[in-house]
Amino acid sequence: MEKHFPFFRPGNEILPPNGSDIKLLNILARELHFTYELKRPPDKSWGGFNGKEWTGMIRMLVKNQADAALSGMTVTYDRYSAVHFSIPYAFDRITFVTKKPSRKPKTWAIFWPYTLQVWIFISLSVLMVSVLMTLLRNAFKSPKSYKEQFKDTALYMFQALLSQGYYNASEIRCRILMAFWWIFCVTVVAGYNGSLMSFMAHPGYNPSLDTVSQLVSAIRNRNFAVGTIQNSADYTVFRDSKQEDLRVILESMNSDPRNLVSHDVDGLAECLKRDYAYVGGELTVRADIWDPKLFLFAKDSFLQYGYAIAFAPDFNHIDLFNHKIRQLQEGGIIVKWMEDIIEQQQFRGTMKVDKSEEDEGKMHVLSVDDVQGAFAILSIGLTIASLICTAEYQIHT
Fold first, then answer.
1. What does the DSSP assignment read for 108-174?
2. Which sign, positive or negative, has the C-alpha torsion 255, 261, 264, 268?
3. Which distant-in-sequence residues (6+ apart) come within 8 Å of 294 by Cβ?
4. DSSP letter string, 10-74
5. pTM over 0.90, yes/no
6. How many C-beta neighbours within 10 Å does residue 28 have?
């Protein structure tokens, strides 16, 4: 067995070994009347074929150094060709986990009520209506004054978006256009004001990686790294695959020695340090997460697989084990063990409600941090005005 929570956690001088596989092993030993001795593989791996020979626990079975191997042993085609397996007693999916997206900065929260596309359409609408209004105002006049009137008209259109008044147009054609422009402005401003306060107080989170295609795009465009346990069954899935997306992920895994780790905890730690996605079984990775609020599991998955007991090639009592495992599995006992162990692990202070989440249910008084976007816009305006003033001074002198 090898350390693999929640299946197996080695004991020490005070605590005995524990985990769902230890409980399973104890029941099998009691019901089938055998004793056992725990051994750990020298290379601390479950086992893979390196092109020449088997490694890890599978090697110990092939060499008859052990009769059975478990602690979250994944059933794969390569392993199945070398050793025997019991029926699966638990199922999992290979997915990836990343650091939970950070909150968006509040500096530009005043622009978030509308998307960039909407802001572009609003700007084009102001320009288009300004041109049309200038033409309507001067329909029967000389075009010489168009340039000056366009500047004033564009300013009037912009003022209408800010709920400011407009000049008293005498032409019926201009009044009709202004009436519909005001309806447009009221609609746009109402939608903006309705969302602005919520974005200023709680701007939300940056986009997360939920699918394999998003992960591949992040690898190609943002130098995002991917990793898993070295020489594990998860790594074998990518090594043996011919799919383009999985080959891209494999290249990322092999591009940096830090990407291939020895344990789930090491992979989770890498997620917090840099732009890194850790690939593993959701069940086992979730069991090693010390604070669920720090990580996010993808909705997509690479593969579904089962956990089973691996036996030496000459082991002749697999049917007895299968019968007892099936009884425990049908009763939901093994799954209940795993759930209880994971809950106990995460209950140790990690499931407390975050202070920021508590504040979301209370009245929020806006602070300087919430309205910093307005000050940022003012600062940009002052900077541009100062630069233009300096340029005009240089021109006139």
1. TGGGTTS-HHHHHHHHHHHHHHHHHHHHHHTTTS-GGGHHHHHHHHHHHHHHHHTT-------SHHH
2. negative
3. 99, 100, 272
4. ---SSS--BSHHHHHHHHHHHHHT--------TT-----B-SSSB-HHHHHHHTTS-SEE-SSPB
5. no
6. 21
Contact between residue 253 and residue 238 where contact means Cβ atoms under 8 Å apart: yes
At which residue do the structure tokens 């992979």 appear?
267
Q: Which residue is associated with the tokens 């400011």?
A: 164
Nearest to 129 by CA among 166, 97, 104: 166
Name the strand (E) or helix (H) holding 270.
helix 264-273
What region, left, alpha or beta, does residue 44 occupy, with left being phi > 0 and alpha being psi -120 to 50 degrees?
left
**From the DSSP assignment, how many helices (H) and strands (E) are in the chain?**
15, 9
What are the mean pLDDT values of the chain's consecutive 10-residue runs (397 residues total)? 85 85 93 92 85 90 93 87 93 91 79 88 90 79 63 82 71 83 88 80 79 92 88 85 92 92 90 92 85 89 90 93 92 88 67 46 62 77 85 81
- Name 8's bridge partners: 4
Rounding to the nearest 10 degrees, give the CA dihedral for residues 241, 245, 249, 252.
120
* Cα 394 to Cα 396: distance, rounded to the nearest angstrom: 6
Output the CA–CA distances (angstroms, integers) from residue 231 to 45, 81, 238, in the order listed: 7, 17, 11
Token pair of 334, please?
């093994």
How far apart, in whole angstroms, are the C-alpha atoms of residue 155 and residue 161? 10
Q: Can you tell me the distance from the alpha carbon of 217 to that of 214, in angstroms, rounded to the nearest whole number? A: 5
80: DSSP letter: H
| d(C-alpha 292, C-alpha 211), whole Å | 20
First to last CA, the chain: 85
Transcribe 308-331 into DSSP letters: --EE-TT---HHHHHHHHHHHHHT
